Amino acid sequence: MESVDVVVIGAGFAGLIAARELGAAGLSVVVLEARDRVGGRTWTDRRFGHDLELGGTWVHWVQPHTWAEMTRYGRDIERSPSAEEAYWRDADGTARTGTIAAFMAVIADGQQGIIDDVGTAIPRGVDPTSGGIAELDALTVQDRIDALGLAPEARAANESVWVGHVNAPLDQVGLSSALRWVAATGGHWQLMHEASATYRVVGGMSAFTAEIARDVRGDVRLGATVAAVTQVAGGADAGAVVELVDGSRIRARRVVSTLPANALSTIAFDPPLPEAWRRLGEERVASRGTKAWIRARGHVPRFFAYASQHDPLSVLKAEFYGSDDDGEYTLLVAFGPDHTRLDLDDVAAVQAAVDAFRPGIEVTAATGHDWMTDPLSQNTWMTHRPGQLTRYLADLQRPHGAVHFATTDNADLWGGFVDGAIESGLREARRIAAALA
Ligand SMILES: Cc1cc2nc3c(=O)[nH]c(=O)nc-3n(C[C@H](O)[C@H](O)[C@H](O)COP(=O)(O)OP(=O)(O)OC[C@H]3O[C@@H](n4cnc5c(N)ncnc54)[C@H](O)[C@@H]3O)c2cc1C
């Protein structure tokens, strides 16, 4: 049987960073990735004549782990187009349109109100469970908005902004998910908005992860799906045997799982997963949305639009412009709170979803990737249900014998983001290198 120091399961950001660090520490490493590509929930694919990000896209210099990798690999950023017009809806569904400044004036008090106690709830973003969050963690984002007593238009607009951030209906998402990201931006909600949806990586996420993969001193095996991890007790032989779906087996002194929480039960662990992972996998995390790329006829002025959390699409903005044999076109990016509400192959349904909050656009095609039904992810960017942050995070970070867990889903600072994935990969690589030294 093949034998290595460490098997890393998964070649997303967490797995690639962990493998690179472990190899650099002089350990023999094999990365097993089920897909035919690296990058996991980041994926740049050529569609509609453009390199489109189907998963994670936006990065920012306030994301320290991401930014260190950007510097290391000499990656630049470019700004997504700034909007000239804003569209939103009143509580009764009446369409509103105006300048960006007018929209910001509608949401400003509510946005501040939602996160006003962040300084006491999560005083240090790098330690998200240490403050008063424990008493607040039973609340949903919806509970907090309901308690603010906002005027109907402001309430509707604030809800629509947050459903865009958390990628699920607001009564499903813990307030902690809002507070921890704002804690990561020093308590400033405006900076959190900028950090999470403004600057993309020049050349695309897939080129970025391919570059990290090239730095791994060890094999990165694609099409290698892990079926089981069996720990071996005792003495010099302690470790685990990793079995692939084709029946092949690798013995390792340590194993790093980078599977998202919702997908972890696809691997048979012996001994079984610790309780925190098992329970989180049963409850599932909150995020369950969709990301869509929509091709529209003609040149649509730069805009962003917000519908409500009850619509199939709740956020829409212009991202790219181009022209081909069919004339000028605009590519729009959209997000919705529930992936089951819209079939992106059904152009008429996509048209109706767009008409509901940004009239005057002719949709000619739509595309995307359903990360929720993808068995290897079963999630988009992770947001917690109420209580999950304080109930589980500490336990999720603990190694289980020879098995370590590195995933954005158990990160401290930017949990759910690329930054959190990198943080978790660095953390587990450091622990393993110290243990095996
Ligand atoms: C639509 C969308 C938009 C997003 N937008 C942003 C954004 O703008 N900015 C941002 O920072 N983040 C964003 N994110 C989140 C970000 O992409 C993720 O947090 C990050 O990529 C997760 O990295 P990871 O390594 O923890 O997990 P993953 O990338 O999910 O890696 C896990 C890997 O394990 C593999 N795997 C699963 N099961 C097995 C198995 N049995 N055997 C072998 N391999 C297996 C998977 O194929 C995958 O490659 C977005 C995510 C989505 C889906």
Automatic annotation (TrEMBL):
Residues 13-432 form the Amine oxidase domain. Its cofactor is FAD. This is Amino acid oxidase. FAD binds at E33, A34, V226. Keywords: Oxidoreductase. Substrate binds at F335. Belongs to the flavin monoamine oxidase family. One of its GO terms (molecular function) is oxidoreductase activity. The keyword Oxidoreductase applies.
